[in-house]
């Protein structure tokens, strides 16, 4: 005989916002923190292959150095930045072939085009 209990019908299911927080879409990952948006915006304005220290990137983006430190792994994983070998202090280069930056430029153009009509 099975000793399993039937599901408790009083248990509340998670809300949609809780589910979205627990399992964010790629879009939510890049927009959930305002600093990431500012950094990506600065990288969109930068010339391909431009190099930054973490402090320089923070200044360029208008965010704290701590924000750059906090989100650096995400920026590297998204391949918008790449580390510059043998640089001290460590420098990071805007990835010239970044798919994400290309897509963000397209979204930027689309939004600006729609809003200027």
Features:
Arc Repressor Mutant, subunit A, WH-like_DNA-bd_sf, extended, 117 residues, mainly alpha, 3-stranded antiparallel β-sheet, 6 helices
Describe the protein.
InterPro entries: WH-like_DNA-bd_sf (IPR036388), WH_DNA-bd_sf (IPR036390). A hairpin with a 6-residue loop joins strand 2 (81-84) and strand 3 (91-94). The chain has a single domain (17-115), classed as Winged helix-like DNA-binding domain superfamily/Winged helix DNA-binding domain (Arc Repressor Mutant, subunit A). The chain has a 3-stranded antiparallel β-sheet. It is built from 6 helices and 3 strands, in the order H-H-H-E-H-H-E-E-H. By secondary structure, the protein is mainly alpha-helical. The radius of gyration is 20 Å and the shape is extended. The chain has helices spanning 16-22, 26-31, 34-45, 54-61, 65-77, 99-115; strands at 51-52, 81-84, 91-94. Helix 3 crosses helix 4 (54-61) and helix 4 packs across helix 5. The model has no long low-confidence stretch (mean pLDDT 92). The longest helix is centred in the last third of the chain and has 17 residues, at 99-115.
